[in-house]
Amino acid sequence: MSTEEFWNVAKPMIDVTEKHPFLVAMVDGTLKEENFKYYVVQDTLYLKEFADCLTRLSKSASTPEDAKQLEHFAHDAEHAELDLHNSFFKEWNISAEGATEMPNCLLYTSYMKRIVATKSHAHGLATLLPCFWVYMHVGKCMLKLREELGDSVKRPPQFDAWIDMYGGEEFEKEVTTYIAMVEAAIKKADEKTVKEMQDCFLMCCKLEHMFWDQADTLLKWPDLGGL
Fold first, then answer.
1. 98: which residues sit within 8 A by CB, 6+ positions away?
2. What is the DSSP letter of 77?
3. What is the sign of the dihedral through the CA atoms of 156, 174, 113 and 211?
4. Which helix or strand (DSSP H or E) is residue 135 part of?
5. How many CA atoms lie less than 13 Å away from 93 in the CB half-sphere?
6. Whole-angstrom Cα distance, residue 159 to residue 30?
7. Nearest residue to 160 (alpha-carbon basis) of 7, 34, 28
8. Range of the domain at 46
9. Which DSSP category does 102 fall into?
10. Which of 65, 75, 93, 217 has the smallest count of CB within 10 Å of its CB?
11. What is the number of other CB atoms lying within 10 angstroms of the CB of residue 94?
12. Are 194 and 1 in contact (CB under 8 A)?
């Protein structure tokens, strides 16, 4: 089995995700600023947990090279990606400080942290793969749509900055490197572990979709009398 087979199993979900209303609206300029702000705050909370998971995986890596690479990925999640988010916060004069993870964000980070903490290194690698690969994929799809629309629409500069990052060559290089690490883990794993890795990958592809659902609907926790 290979990461390509993981992708093929998840492809029906990914095909739907690449056309998610939230993502399409970012490109055609119809996404409301309120929804994008909500997304950026939630993604900031998510990325902090994602970076922590990468750091944890670096400590269980089988080679010093893999450990160093995973530390690099964690650093990029905490700095390159969060720097983009923080630049938005400065422009809007808002912050993610004190913000609460909303239901789908908490579901995603809780699942991710549980797998990294309780399963093998290989399981953890597969669990974090969709955040790399699906983001690159939708970024490329959004770049293509942006080119097709040309000057017919206007969008806030923050939307373009986001598309440029995740559809860009630098992010693609990181994703390619991470995929190679997962491929290596697959080759070393037994059949049962590989099947479980595939299940982890598929689950997180679903959670990626739900993360954008959450931002599209501005999902909140139920109001239970202030609790």
1. none
2. I
3. positive
4. helix 121-149
5. 0
6. 11
7. 28
8. 3-217
9. -
10. 93
11. 13
12. yes
Reported as a single tens digit per residue, the pLDDT across 56-113 is: 999 999 899 999 999 999 998 888 767 888 888 888 888 888 899 999 999 999 999 9
Contact 210, 108 (CB under 8 A): yes
Place of tokens 């479980």: 196
CATH number of residue 181's parent domain: 1.20.910.10
What pTM was computed for the model?
Answer: 0.94
Residue 66 covered by a domain: yes
Based on the structure, what is the number of domains in the chain?
Answer: 1
User: What's the CA gap between 215 and 194, in Å, rounded?
Assistant: 32
**DSSP 3-state of 179:** helix
Residues 6 or more apart from 60 whose CB is under 8 A from it?
Answer: 121, 124
Q: Which residue has the tokens 């809007």?
A: 92
Report how far apart, in Å, the C-alpha atoms of 147 and of each of 128, 143, 207 are. Answer: 30, 6, 28
**Within-domain flag for 227:** no
pLDDT digits (tens, 9 = 90+) for 8-51: 999 999 999 999 999 999 999 999 999 999 999 999 999 999 99
Is residue 223 in a domain? no
Q: How confident is the model at residue 226 (pLDDT cuts 50, 70, 90)?
A: low
**Of 214, 212, 193, the residue nearest 6 (C-alpha):** 193
The answer to the question of residue 151 being in a domain is yes
| Spatial distance between the Cα atoms of 143 and 205, rounded to a whole number of angstroms | 20
Rounded to the nearest integer, the mean pLDDT of the chain is 94
Question: Running DSSP on this structure, what letter comes out for residue 203?
Answer: H
